[in-house]
Design a protein that fits this description.
The complex is a heterodimer. Chain A is α+β, with helices and mostly antiparallel strands. Among the domains of chain A are: 218-312, 3-Layer(aba) Sandwich (Rossmann fold), CATH 3.40.50.11290; 353-413, Dna Ligase, domain 1 (2-Layer Sandwich). Chain A has 15 helices and 22 strands. Chain A has helices spanning 29-36, 40-57, 85-109, 114-117, 123-127, 175-188, 190-195, 204-213, 237-247, 285-288, 304-309, 327-330, 333-341, 358-366, 392-404, and strands at residues 60-65, 68-73, 76-84, 149-156, 162-168, 225-229, 250-253, 257-259, 265-269, 272-275, 278-281, 314-316, 353-354, 371-375, 385-386, 409-413, 419-424, 427-436, 438-441, 445-447, 452-456, 470-478. In chain A, the strands form 6 sheets. A 5-stranded mixed beta sheet of chain A has the order 3-22-21-18-17. A 4-stranded antiparallel beta sheet of chain A has the order 5-4-19-20. In chain A, helix 2 (40-57) packs across helix 6 and helix 3 packs across helix 13 (333-341). The longest helix of chain A is centred in the first third of the chain and has 25 residues, at 85-109. By secondary structure, chain B is an all-alpha fold. Chain B is built from 15 helices and no strands. Chain B is globular and about 55 Å long. The chains are: A alpha+beta, B mainly alpha. Chains A and B meet through helix 2, helix 9, strand 7 and strand 9 of A and helix 1 and helix 6 of B.
């Protein structure tokens, strides 16, 4: 019988589980031992069991297309991605450090702007950021934390080093898939999970609830927390409903809420109006309040910003937090850590060339075929150019786009991001992956044990976004010493 | 509890009940037609008239045969009264209220929907259809069962019970309306010959045959059956029993305003019906009025709890 590992080529990238076709890394030894006891047909069966569970549990995401919105089943690879707890502890520290510095930075941007005055970042960069909200100047959210929920994307280069690729500080999504992936793995490999010491992840909803409670503006017994969703047509609606359910919070839409003359937020219930203390909002700033931001928004709540500024309701993440979720601002995060915390960054940034700086732009234009170029404010992997995979024509066109709006583009070297064995047509093949841990910051700071591993299912592809053919894996942080 | 959530749970329950009723009706009717000789004048047309769907059906198809009628009632996605449309609407409502319900409830409805969607094409085949309807009925029973054993009996559960019983009372009244035709003085001699069979069929479609035998303990007789299905206070699908459930839910909900007295009036109206003294024509008028009143009750529930928008 041919091995499931046949011709497993780890190529130039770092493989998370394997040194080579036959040699597992220490973290994956137990997994590989177990996988070798399975027959090829077992893999197909387990894969089918996982797919069935996903369909029945209704784990979906919505894709916008010309034919309308389609709910797609969440593509899931049954082979987990594994990280040693010792390495993880360092990453966890790095993530906490990073979010703390980012929150200091955002507080500073909306207060005295010492960081700008010290010449650490051009004021131009802040003022031209789409997500800088002048309306927020002078605000002081509780604990002086603006970004309460952060999803940072990590990638490992061929040298084995984990880099932070970006910090998502607006409305990061994916955590429900992280949780559901574990539920599915428990169904698919029940024997295996018993044997290996994997850190649990299912306390996230409780941690989220605690964090949100710590934001309540006035001390009350149990603050009334709601999850504000743009509604059923949003691609992450499943997650909004899931988190509300897990926290026992109400899932509300803008039309369920009203701000009265007392500048307090109420929800419309069968018993009349009920006051709200904390809103976990999953709506972008732009649509939050038609009174202040986009007037045509029907998703938000008129007067919400008034209520927030009056200190009657907490919004997580705070409006304006997105100013640090900008790929140009990203380049300055290591400096923020040094400036605000007086520490050296634990996790490195990917070297970044800012097209707003003339020398950098020149370098980017000259080396476009080697670089990845991204717009400063897009998410979902849209509007970017992967140089090595682009045609000469695409490269030429992108040059024009960059020259027209240099502030909006950054260039980064194309990393050989790491791979992990992924089940492809009955065989294991290396596929590129990244990792999105979730960090919560309120009164305390919390990092998920692992995060959501996203995998580019197409051979050779580096794009892991679910909207563009990406899937996901369960992520195991394992403690080998206690095994 | 959010008004919007209350509304969605109410509709979730109505659509699930409608799904079950549709499956049950088609299933029982299919059995009946297998028993009856062809010349009795009982066919597939009757099923469509029960739900007042004749005009929608006639717009589409001409021939009321088994194939067309079952497709229309079960599989037609463009017809809002079909089983698949009800199930789809139930799924949309539960998808938007998942945070209030046990996980299993969502999974149950989702699985049923996926099963139905994947089997729509095979329904022209009778044995496939029998299997399909059994699966749907099992699914609906499972749904009701897990809600009653997993959910606390608070407001969300009350709105579910409320929706379920309003839909149920409405369906029972429609079936009785059709049954009243059997009392017509002008019915054919041929039809009279099979009357018992037809009344048994009415009872089965409301899952009431066994209970009728146990509690009425007489041979199956039209007046007794009508009496049982209208007035019995212990039979889950009788109008009387549905109204008791509706009253209980309404009474325990906040801001119920004039709804309890309105429901009590409706109960008194039903209790005053004497099936032994009414002609077929009178009965039809009574049932018509009952449906109107149920609809008024529904409207008042909507304005009382779902549309409550307090001025800013």
């Amino acid at each position: 019988m041919k091995s499931i590992w046949e011709n497993y080529k780890t190529d130039a990238a770092y493989d998370e589980l394997m040194y080579s076709e036959f040699q597992p890394r220490p973290v994956s030894q137990r997994l590989c031992q177990y996988l070798n006891t399975l027959k090829k047909t077992d893999f197909d069966q387990r894969k089918m069991a996982a797919e069935l569970a996903i369909m029945e549990m209704g784990i979906t995401f919505t894709v916008y297309s010309d034919e309308g919105n389609i709910d797609r089943a969440w593509p899931f690879d049954i082979i987990p991605r594994i990280i040693d707890v010792k390495e993880w502890q360092k990453i966890e520290q790095g993530l906490k450090q990073r979010l703390t510095a980012l929150n200091c930075f955002i507080s500073d941007v909306y207060a005295n702007q010492e960081f700008i005055k010290a010449g650490k970042i051009p004021s131009e960069t802040i003022n031209s950021s789409k997500n800088f909200r002048p309306e927020c100047v002078g605000m002081k959210p509780k604990h002086e934390v603006w970004a309460n929920i952060c999803g940072s994307d990590l990638v490992r280069d061929k040298d084995g080093v984990m880099y932070v690729l970006e910090d998502n500080l607006r409305v990061p999504s994916g955590v429900s898939y992280m949780l559901e992936n574990r539920v599915i793995t428990k169904r698919v490999f029940p024997e295996l999970l018993q044997d290996i010491n994997i850190l649990p992840i299912d306390d996230y909803p409780t941690q989220l609830q605690d964090m949100l409670s710590s934001l309540a503006p006035h001390p009350v017994g149990k603050p009334q927390i709601v999850v504000l969703t743009p509604g059923i047509y949003n691609s992450a609606y499943f997650e909004h409903a899931y988190l509300a359910q897990q926290m026992g919070a109400q899932l509300v839409e803008g039309s369920d809420l009203v701000v009265k003359e007392d500048d307090c937020v109420y929800m419309k219930t069968i018993e009349g109006l009920e006051k709200i203390d904390v809103i976990y909002r999953r709506i972008d700033d732009d649509f939050l309040d038609p009174e202040v931001f986009r007037a045509d928004s029907s998703l938000g709540v008129r007067g919400l910003m008034r209520a927030w500024k009056a200190g009657n309701v907490a919004l997580a993440n705070a409006p304006g937090a997105g100013v640090a979720d900008d790929k140009v601002v990203y380049a300055y995060v290591p400096e923020m850590i040094r400036y605000f915390l007086n520490e050296e960054p634990i996790l490195p940034n990917v070297p970044t060339y800012l097209c707003s700086i003339p020398e950098d732009m020149e370098y980017v234009l000259d080396n476009l075929a080697k670089l990845v170029v991204k717009p400063a404010n897009e998410s979902g992997g849209y509007g970017m150019l992967v140089g090595p995979h682009a045609t000469a024509k695409e490269v030429a066109e992108f040059k024009k786009i960059i020259k027209a709006n240099p502030r909006n583009y950054i260039g980064q070297p194309t990393l050989a991001i790491s791979t992990a064995p992924t089940l492809c047509k009955g065989k294991l093949e290396p596929r590129h992956i990244d990792l999105r841990p979730f960090i919560l910051q309120g009164e305390h700071t919390f990092v998920t044990a692992g995060g959501l591993t996203r995998v580019a299912l197409k051979k050779g592809s580096l794009v892991v976004n679910s909207s563009q053919g990406g899937g996901s894996k369960d992520t195991w942080i394992i403690n080998m010493e206690e095994n | 509890m959010l008004s919007r959530s209350a509304e969605r749970l109410y509709w979730l329950a109505r659509y699930m009940e409608r799904t079950e009723n549709t499956a049950k009706l088609v299933s029982v009717h299919m059995n009946l037609l297998m028993d009856l000789p062809k010349d009795v004048g009982m066919g597939w047309q009757q099923l469509i008239s029960i739900n007042g769907q004749s005009s929608a059906f006639n717009d589409q198809t001409k021939l009321a045969n088994e194939r067309n009628v079952t497709r229309f009632l079960l599989a037609d996605t463009s017809h809002s009264g079909s089983l698949i449309s009800s199930l789809n609407a139930a799924r949309e409502n539960i998808r938007t209220t998942r945070e209030l319900l046990p996980d299993e409830a969502w999974q149950q409805v989702n699985e049923m929907y996926l099963f139905a969607k994947n089997n729509l094409d095979s329904l022209t085949n009778r044995s496939h259809r029998v299997h399909f309807l059994n699966e749907i009925l099992k699914g609906c029973q499972g749904f009701n069962g897990l809600l009653s054993s997993y959910m606390s009996h608070h407001h969300p559960y009350r709105f579910i019970r409320l929706g379920k019983n309003i839909e149920r009372a409405d369906m029972t009244s429609r079936i009785l309306d059709l049954a009243s035709l059997l009392l017509s003085e002008t019915r054919s001699a041929n039809l009279r010959q099979y009357e018992t069979l037809l009344w048994m069929n009415i009872l089965s479609s409301l899952n009431a045959l066994l209970m009728y035998r146990q509690h009425v303990r007489s041979r199956i007789d039209g007046d007794d059956v009508l009496n049982f299905l209208l007035l019995d206070k212990k039979l889950p699908r009788s109008i009387g029993c549905c109204l008791i459930e509706i009253y209980d839910c309404i009474n325990e909900l906040p801001n119920n305003d004039s709804l309890p007295s309105k429901t009590a009036e409706l109960q008194a109206y039903v209790e005053a019906i004497d099936t032994h003294q009414t002609t077929q024509l009178q009965l039809r008028m009574i049932l018509d009025e009952l449906q109107n009143q149920l609809n008024e009750l529904h409207q008042q529930i909507v304005s009382n709890w779902f549309l409550k928008i307090t001025p800013q």
